[in-house]
Amino acid sequence: MNNIRNFCIIAHIDHGKSTLADRFLEVTETVDKRKMRAQLLDQMEIEQERGITIKLQPVRMKYKNHVLNLIDTPGHVDFTYEVSRSLAAVEGAILLVDASQGVQAQTIANLYLAIEQDLTIIPVLNKIDLPNADVEKASAEIIHLLGCKPEDILTCSGKTGVGVPELLEAVIERVPPPQQTEQEPVRALIFDSFYDDYRGVVASVRMMDGQIKKNDQLYFMGTGAEADALEVGHYTPNLSADPILENGQIGYIVTGLKELGEVRVGDTVTLFKQPAATQLPGYKEVKPMVYAGIFPAEGDNYAELRDAMDKLKLNDSALFYEPEHSQALGFGFRCGFLGMLHLEIFQERIDREFNIDIIATVPSVAYNVYKRNGDKLIVKSPQDLPDPTHIDHIEEPWMQVDIITPDNFIGNVMGLVAERKGIYKNTEYLSTGAGQRAMLHYEMPLASLITDFYDKLKTVTSGYASMNYEFKDYRKTDVVKLDILIAEEPVEALSCLVWHDEAHAVGKKIVNSLKDTLPRQQFVLKIQAAIGGKIVAGEKLSALRKDVTAKLYGGDVTRKRKLLEKQKKGKKKMMAMGKGKVDIPTEAYLAVLKR
């Protein structure tokens, strides 16, 4: 056990975690050169395409008579739960900072997560080969953040491989080996899992006590499930079978279980014959930030969608869902996500991995609604909002937001946040001298963060700002339900909850985007936004014009007029009969979703 080192890499987006992991695999010769490719640990197609890490990925390497278990983690704020789970399975963390960009918001957030877990932290400056790398300035920021000595900070380049062997040696020197425990009953922590069509659920585990062999009878303490260990082994990063998984190691167990709910992330695995007395402390329940309705485009795909979501939940434990019924869209789910990128990735995975077309409703946050009779409801969907006459008051979630920006953009950031109802707290400077960077602390309503705040922040700071946010508390607000009417019929999937003072502006935006995306009908189509019975915004989509006079030649003009009058009457009749019979294409829903 003294030769085992368990560690992970934490960093902001695009600071080079996956590239550095590639160099580790090359230096330790874990992967054959002919099988090597860029971002090898990003196994999903979407990760490769977008160049971001979405899933944590374990891998075992051997270097100088030591076994190094690495977990590569995501950098985006929407996948923080993946990072926190990785940190609970290791003893050390490499804090990676891009030497050209310096410390960013997510660097600090992930660092605090690692400090909470009491991990050994190795600060590393990456991308030192870049011409604009400023090692001194970035080092000063790390020293300000960690209070470490300048000689504790290592430098490397994930691209060229400079400094990578020294970094591996530092991991062996500085990261403590797993703690020796007496041969207590077996306990292993499940930190991730996925579904294999042939072998059932495969759980990724960190062995805390004892050992698990192939064919051992297992007991899952949280769910009460029983299973046989069909296979145990480690990640290379592919599955590689071993006869035994020992104390302190990170590996996987093939359970053969087909009931997906029986293996839960954060659960403790023990032996059925000698169960442990107590469970390992798991993970705190993750709190979804954004809720959206997810419905199959084809009504008869509901069962397939449910199975797909069960399998995704295994692989993405931050996902929350419960069944929901909508008059317009039929049976579906109300899903909770950690942010808009999480929702986008979820939609893409459902489409690619399970080939199911879905419709997503406009995202909203969860509101606490207090009724006049003293009842309290948690409203996640506009359809759940009670009649306004029964409501005493509504509370919305507020977030603590940290924004890091170069000091010459502070004015732009303050202007943007003021527009979004943010409350300024204070400013902290991370560095001194020319081009110094400031960290602005704000409190903001979550509803103003989830739409396009991040994009706007990048725009006003020329792409230099970064942000991180976490839940603070619930506060009183004035929220109303905005209904969208098409041909005077309400479209449930497009309703949303908005602040009363912004109802007109939001309604106008939605109505305009629908006018651009809805197909024209044979009659004039009314598109309106309403609060209760009051119309706050409206547009008309002109009718398709069929040239009924094309067949005429010569004769009196009254013949032409007669035909046009007949067409006019027909259009009126169609408008009266065609109400509510407008087919709304998925593109129109998506246009509103991305408004």
What does this structure look like?
The chain has five domains: 4-174, Rossmann fold (3-Layer(aba) Sandwich); 187-271, Elongation Factor Tu (Ef-tu), domain 3 (Beta Barrel), CATH 2.40.30; 290-360, 2-Layer Sandwich (Alpha-Beta Plaits); 391-477, 2-Layer Sandwich (Alpha-Beta Plaits), CATH 3.30.70.240; 481-593, Elongation factor 4, C-terminal domain (Alpha-Beta Plaits), CATH 3.30.70. The model has no long low-confidence stretch (mean pLDDT 84). α7 (302-315) crosses α8 (340-354) and α11 runs antiparallel to α13 (586-593). With 595 residues, it is α+β, with helices and mostly antiparallel strands. Strands 11-10-16-7-8-15-12-13 form an eight-stranded antiparallel sheet, covered by helices on one side. The chain contains 13 helices and 31 strands. The chain is globular, with a radius of gyration of 28 Å.
Quick rundown:
This protein is of the alpha+beta class. The protein has 13 helices and 31 strands.
Task: Outline the fold blueprint.
Blueprint lengths: L3 E8 L5 H11 L17 H6 L6 E7 L2 E7 L7 H8 L4 E7 L6 H12 L3 E7 L8 H12 L7 E2 L8 H11 L12 E10 L3 E10 L2 E2 L3 E4 L5 E3 L2 E5 L3 E4 L1 E2 L4 E5 L13 E4 L18 E7 L5 H14 L4 E7 L3 E8 L2 H15 L3 E3 L6 E5 L4 E4 L11 E16 L3 H10 L3 E7 L7 E9 L7 H8 L5 E12 L1 E8 L2 E2 L5 E4 L3 H15 L7 E7 L2 E8 L15 H21 L8 H8 L2
Parallel strand pairs: 1-3, 1-4, 4-5, 5-6
Antiparallel strand pairs: 2-3, 7-8, 7-16, 8-15, 9-14, 10-11, 10-16, 12-13, 12-15, 17-19, 17-20, 18-19, 21-22, 21-23, 23-25, 23-26, 24-25, 27-28, 27-29, 27-30, 30-31
Helix pairs in contact: 7-8, 11-13
